[in-house]
Each structure stands twice: as structure tokens, then as C-alpha cells.
Amino acid sequence: MINYIWFIMIFLGILVSVFTGNGEAMSNTIISSIDSTVTFIISLVGLMCFWCGVMRVAEKSGLTEKLAKLMKPVLKVIFKEAAKDEKALGAIVMNITANMMGLGNAATPFGIKAMEEMDRLNRDKGRASNDMALFLVLNAACVQLVPSTVISIRAAAGSTNPGVIILPAILSTTIAAVVGVICAKILQRYF
Questions:
Q1: Quick one: which H or E segment has residue 135?
Q2: On the CB side of 47, how many CA atoms lie within 13 Å of its CA?
Q3: What residues does the Nucleoside transporter/FeoB GTPase Gate domain cover (predicted)?
Q4: What is the 3-state secondary structure (H, E, C) of 142-153?
């Protein structure tokens, strides 16, 4: 669906620029922005490789496992059915921990596994359980301890202090996660 929306926006933009006589200005803008775009992407790839390496070291050193042990008691309180099943809770913990550390690629298989395990526990097949919905909320509003993507983008854009975003990111993602959990718990009573 999003592809159709983007196509329509681009097509309408081109159409309007041609009919208003700004077709040449649009072409010149596109051509002039290509150089800066390629430079930005190349610098971003290098920074993303660096942060992925840092996160991999955190994973291999056991930092993510220690974080998972700290989170497990909290998640047992939040999740009702999944807390009773060690496999489901383990996959949830590993997914959220990997997301917190900025290991998006490592988090995806754990997220899929967590949903499979919660679906196994689900009594109403074909409909998401409350734990599944809550997991999606936590996955979407996950607390970011190291927002490596934003740091990389800021550094590639020439920021003098790209890491200044860490504290605001921790604060805003924590607030988002708490509000998401509260809303999910309130809605569970009605649906």
C-alpha cells in the first residue's frame, strides 16, 4: 500500500511541475542532489558498520544476556500467559534485549520466535492474544539504550556531537514504552 502512496505522490509532483512550467527546475534539483545523496549514503554505511560491530561485541561479551536477566522479572509481571511458558518468555526477553542494544537484525528472529511461541499458547487461533498485542507494542516502542541508527545519521550529516541524542532517546523511548504498556493493559479490559 505504501508503494502506491509514494507512486501517487511522485507522479502528482512531476505532473504539477510540468504543468506549472517548473519541469526544468525539478530536473535540475534532482540532478544536483544526487551527489550529496551518494556521499551521505556512503558515509552512513561506514558508520552503520561501526555501530553494528560495537553491538556485536556487546552481544558476544554477554552484555545482552545480563540485560535479559535484569528484564525477565519485569516481563513476567507484564505478560500473563507468556510468563508461564519459559520458551515464550525467553524469546520475548531476547527480542527486546536485542532491540534495546540496537541489534535489529538479531532481534527479528527472536521476535518471530516469540510470536510463534505465543501463538502456540493462544487459545483463539487466528486472533492475536493480549500478550501478542502487548509484545508488538513493546517491540515498536522499545527502549533504545544505544540509538545507533540515529547516531550514524547525525554523524553522516556532519553533526559536531552525534552522541548527544543518547539521553533524550533513552528518555523518550522509555516514556513511549511505558505509555504503550499502560494503553495496552487498559484496552485489554475492553477487548
A1: helix 130-140
A2: 21
A3: 42-154
A4: CCCCCCHHHHHH
Q: Where are the domains of the chain?
A: 2-188
> Would you give the DSSP letter of residue 103?
-
Residue 44 has pLDDT above 80, yes or no: no
Please state which of the ranges 7-16, 49-58, 117-126 shows the lowest mean pLDDT.
Answer: 49-58
pLDDT band at 119 (very low <50, low <70, confident <90, very high): very high
Residue in the structure block whose three cell numbers are 506549472: 20
123-127, long-range: CB < 8 A, 24+ apart: none
Three-point CA angle 9, 14, 19, nearest 5°: 125
**AA identity, residue 99:** N
Residues with Cβ within 8 Å of 173's Cβ and at least 6 positions away in sequence, in order, are 141, 142, 143, 144, 147
pTM of the predicted protein model: 0.66
Cβ atoms of 130 and 188 within 8 Å: the answer is yes
- The Cα 56–Cα 8 span in angstroms is 40
Q: What is the dihedral of CA 43, 139, 183, 116, to 10 degrees?
A: 160
